[in-house]
Amino acid sequence: MSLLAQLIANGIIAGAIYALVALGYTMVYGILKFINFAHGEILMMGAYFAYTGVHVFALPLWMAAVIAMALAALLGIIIERVAYRPLRFSGKIAPLVTAVAMSLLLQSVALIIWGGDIRTLRTGNVTVGREILGAMVTNHQLVIIVTTAIVLAFLFLFLKYTKMGKAMRAVTDNLSLALTLGINVDRVIMFTFALGSALAALAGVLIGVEQTIQPTMGVALGIAAFSAAVVGGIGNIHGAVLGAFVIGLAENIGIWFIPSGYKPAISFLILIIMLIFKPTGILGESKETDVRKNEA
Amino acid sequence: MGYFEHLGILICIYVILSASLNIILGFTGMLNLGHVAFFGIGAYTSALLAKVLGFSWLASLAGGVVLAGVAGLLIGIPCLRLRGDYLAIATLGFGEIVRSLMKNWSSLTRGPLGIPGIPKPELFGFRFTDTQDFLILAIVVTSIVVFLIHRIVHSPFGRVLRAIREDEIAAQSLGKNVVRYKLFALTIGAAFAGVAGSLYAHYITFIDPTTFSFFETVLMVAMVVLGGMGSLAGSIIGAIILVILPEPLRFIKLPTDIMAALRDIIYSVILILMMHFRPNGLVSEGSLRKKILHWWHRVRGVSA
Question: What pTM value is reported for the model?
């Protein structure tokens, strides 16, 4: 077992989770040009919904996870409808401040309902992992990678072939044109929030199984996943997945060089560097976006 | 009574913070979600200068102000080419990086243990140990800061800032160096936040990384937004309201973390409602002045 192999393995596992979260950021941004700051908190709520399902209603984990995803999707829809939709045409500051406030609100609500204690969805003992290409990987971690891979595959098929998937891409590409073509943009946006929230909830459940749950967990994850979305090229679905693995690997290999306490700062550092040198991201189009304005 | 004086001091500190954030957010229109970093840098620098190097309070304060200003300049240089959401995220990231330095650079900041025993301010041989004396000091310092900010935002410089906020391209086509103005605004705002940091550190006499969390930034943004972006009077009113508002919660016997959560719920609901129903804040820009002028003319008109 070599250290580098282990760090790469850890990076891929983190990347798989970031990918699920980053998709939500990037889909919403692609359509509304709006950073849903509360996305990390939806992940956290999803994890707690599953926790409640398992520990209060004694459901099997998979069933709790599905219900948690459905509830998170509903929560995403409600938040969009109540908090964001009325502000869709009121500049940049109002929706952003609302989203920041929403994230604080969800955290506080979770703190009151479930308390601040650190919890876990893990059942049974922590097992020793198996060695794959020189890295120790536990069964939980394999589940994370396999689940993410399956979900991503379905998502890509969905976006490519279904009617709703095509509508989502059309709206992302050109909202006003989609509107003229008679696409129900409100419905597409609602669906985008629901889908993104369900994916975030799944990520929350996977983290809960492998690590721990607490009301503030969404913040760092949200930051890393958002960085991933930007690094990959925000608005670009494939970019979000690529960016997620870049961030996951960078964070984990980075602790080889600097103390692990700085880990949360790494994703931000990459984000800032990326924004300075190539704000459209790795896979982003080079057309003028509103990242930078009139540099001439 | 010490309790009200304590609240008064906190209000002063937050007035400085919200007024200084208003320069950046309200007057220049830059979405800065990392203001707490400048507050923290001011507090840590001032505390360390006074405690470790034995500097006088004024010298420590100056050190904190300068370093916070320099930090504003440094984060500004790469970030000012960004705008809107991206600037928000980059500044938020900067705040988190500063906090992770506070937490991890243990040889300097003692990490999570924090810095205890920060000396109370001393001026001309007088030591502000008593809360009442400190309140007077805080009011004086806050008045000076607010006066300076008032002069800055109502100068030709301030007008350019507002022009940038309204229309960057137009400001640019008038020959204004937009990037330099934004950088100035960020540096000045950061430096004033450093004043608040120093006041806080020397008042509480203990600082640790938990004080400088993202929540503080949300609180400062809430104060600016509630009062009214681009209104200095609004910043003061916003700070007063949001410091006092959760205080009644103290009288209900609740566990501390539930109380903190309730307080955060109050803040976030206020922010959301404000954004929906009164996005320009309680005192929208210029309105207070206009109202007073209007009233004055009416009074004179009636009496004349």
Answer: 0.85
